Amino acid sequence: MATPDVSIPDHRELWVRVRARLKAAVGEDVFASWFARLELEEIVDDLVHLSAPTRFLCSWVQSNYADRIVEAFRNDIPEAARLQVTMRVNGQARPRLAPVAEVAPEAPAATETTPAPVAAVTAMPRLVRDNAKSGDALNGSAIDPRMTFDTFVAGSANEMAFGVAKQIASAAINNAVTFNPVYIHSTVGLGKSHLLNGIAHAVSQADPSKNIVYLTADHFMYHFITAVQRQSALGFKEWLRRVDLLLIDDMQFLQGKSATEFGHTLGALLTGAKQVVVAGDAPPRDLEMLDERVRSRLSGGLVVPISSFDHDLRRDIVQRRADQATARFGLHFPGPVVDYIARSVISHGRDLDGAVNRLVAAYQLTGELVTVPLAEKTLADLIRARDAKRVRIEDILKIVSRHYKVPRNELLSARRSRDVVRPRQIAMYLAKALTSRSLPEIGRRFGGRDHTTVLHSVRKVEQMIKDDMELGQEIELLKRMLEE
Length: 484
Known about the structure:
The chain is built from 21 helices and 9 strands. It has helices at 8-26, 28-34, 55-64, 66-74, 159-173, 192-206, 217-229, 233-241, 256-271, 292-300, 311-329, 335-344, 349-366, 372-378, 380-385, 393-404, 408-411, 418-434, 439-445, 451-467, 469-483; strands at 39-44, 47-52, 82-89, 92-93, 182-185, 212-216, 245-249, 275-280, 302-305.
């Protein structure tokens, strides 16, 4: 019988390395959408076996990222050649290809702001099928059972968004609509998904008869494309427009005709006084894939930002997370360790969760007590990776627009005049140099351009820098302005 190629400890360390390679290759946002909820189950001969919490995610990763994932494994496992992605049910993936010699310790529950931990999560949909036939696309994204209002940690950065979410849920339970639509936005990992899940949980628990649909933007696109292919687009539209509460997450990933269909759906639901809540990583005015009318509708509702966490909120999250680990595993997190994590990991909630997870894993694997020196050693790469300021494409657009006196909308337009093309190419070059976004992501943010256009711009600017010392100094100045 085939046996796994890696032992359990190596298995875990290997997956950490592979995940880091994938994140560096595709960018943080794409990684969070497609790879964050994957788990390495086993490696048998040349086959890598991963698991995912939903059938859709299994199918999408297998179809679109198999070669890239296998290539990421080859750095450590040269014989890796094939990928199999299966769905986790009750925290376990089936079928397994080889017996498991040892059961890995159960991972702690998610933090208050992370949508899914590194360990396997039981997918618990709470969505309406409305008489959809077996095999139909009409079901929603998985709801994380731990993302409730009770597990959300509120502070100055997110208390307005938290209050609005609770008010929406309360109104929906009482067959009323408050603010509509509601648009929650922040950078990655600050709790948007947690709030949408919390709304769905609160309403469904109070009134199971409510038609609640929670969809990530990628799942919305999948539904729409599948409906068109099956010539059932009308049924898809009717299904969405019969809901009582529509929750759309990761709005920034909506593209093409699916974005147009979202606009039609939004209009129909608002006209019918149905509650709509949307979350994205940028304000409505920056969602370039939506037409102006839809952006205006989102902006005309209640727009709620979530700002970066301050030290007090980070400490509260880490303390709650540490308390959960203490209750589950019996290890003790001293106050200085909690303070060290809160002070040193300043990016977002997912990294706070990851920091505590690493210390839990270190304790389980070595038995070493959780101390500040252990935290310094275990979290060194996580802290180094976050030392530099995270530059956003929106920051680049603002700086370049101001420096070259070119309106932002023209940088994203199809205009080909020299006074627009050169600043646009420089902006794309800076996006590639200073952000973790992939070329396709950058192209989408620059007016829906193809990744080859971005690559051409990057190479063009690189050559111009070599040929023009003054331009090189000018671009270095822009870099310093963005990094300060």
